[in-house]
Amino acid sequence: MAATITFSSNEGRSLLKTIVSKLVPQWSTGLREFQAETIPLILDNQDVFAIAATGDGKSALFSVPILVHQEIAKNPDLYPKFQVPICQEPIGIVVTPTKGLANNIVKELEYQFGIAAFAYTRENVAGKIRDRVDIDKEIADCRYRIVCVDPEHLRKLSWIKISDSPTFRSNLIFGCAEEAHVIDEWGMNFRPLFRQIGAFVRSRLPSTKSVFAITATIIPGAPQDSLLPFLNQRRRTIIHVRTIDLGYRVFLYLFRNAPQIYNRHYRIRMYSALAPDTYNQRTIDLLQTDPRCQIVIATKAFSLGIHASTLQDSICIGTPDTQCELDQCGGRVGRVRDMNARRIIFTTAKELQSAQKRIEGMFLYLNL
């Protein structure tokens, strides 16, 4: 009987590179270093906490394992035997904090890799019900390769039934928490069920499957007139605001001051949880394809994995609550590495005074 191998072995890593080269020819240089180190662990059903910069291709961690299982299942005679079972209908769960991120992941998976995916949001589920499609049964029968779902839906009876399905359990290859830094940030505040993700994963999913978390930001341990000079440079800009109300006031201010040479509704747009999904998606599409679209005013939803490679400037109105949030906002721009991107933060006089006092206190403590 032929010996089995692991994906983390030299032979396994070599086969992974071969499969990626075959199935993802647009990646002319193959996997990036952190991808090549992490994906074999996931394929070997190991648990992983992946930290990588925004734009470094973290989504490959849940897309490539699906492609690998599909390729080996389709052509078993071309590959050796592996220690982990190869699934005929591989499926993975990606827990996402916002519906915008979920829809964006699905779109990218289908466009880049041809992977069938579904964003399990209230609107998308309602659409399936209207079409008389039993989406829960489709997921349980592994009709999709990746399902994006929020923590609130995981607590519902439908997901208890899905996770009990023998077909689903035998084909599941991983459970992933995307933008993992919000588990604590949001879980301690307005969305407590984020702190229950682990309970679902450990109690409802097979214990032998890989569980991994992805984030670009994790740390150890527990003035409106000023906008105009920046925006008049006509660089693609994301303006981060704390509240929808503040965003609306910024929108009105800019709308009144924008040159009336063409439709200002193209140049300045809002992105928030209150806007319809179709409007938010249209905003992303315009950023990518329409030179008239320059400014997007967004709440936190935009800073969590919404990709628009054309963005050049990130402006925060007020200091974000945490360093992680600050890094996420800045990470929305400069995804194309040769782009001259900028991060701009507008703070209040009170915040500057507070920061100065902290610095002075630190110097006193260190006797400098």
UniProtKB/TrEMBL annotation:
The keyword Isomerase does not apply. Keywords: ATP-binding, Hydrolase, Nucleotide-binding. Residues 39-236 form the Helicase ATP-binding domain. Its EC number is 5.6.2.4. It catalyses: Couples ATP hydrolysis with the unwinding of duplex DNA by translocating in the 3'-5' direction. SUPFAM superfamilies: P-loop containing nucleoside triphosphate hydrolases. GO terms for cellular component: chromosome; cytoplasm; nucleus. It comes from the Eukaryota. The keyword Protease does not apply. Gene3D superfamilies: P-loop containing nucleotide triphosphate hydrolases. GO terms for molecular function: 3'-5' DNA helicase activity; ATP binding; four-way junction helicase activity; hydrolase activity; nucleic acid binding. GO terms for biological process: double-strand break repair via homologous recombination. Belongs to the helicase family. RecQ subfamily. PANTHER family: BIFUNCTIONAL 3'-5' EXONUCLEASE_ATP-DEPENDENT HELICASE WRN (PTHR13710:SF120), DNA HELICASE RECQ FAMILY MEMBER (PTHR13710). This is DNA 3'-5' helicase. It comes from Dendrothele bispora (strain CBS 962.96).
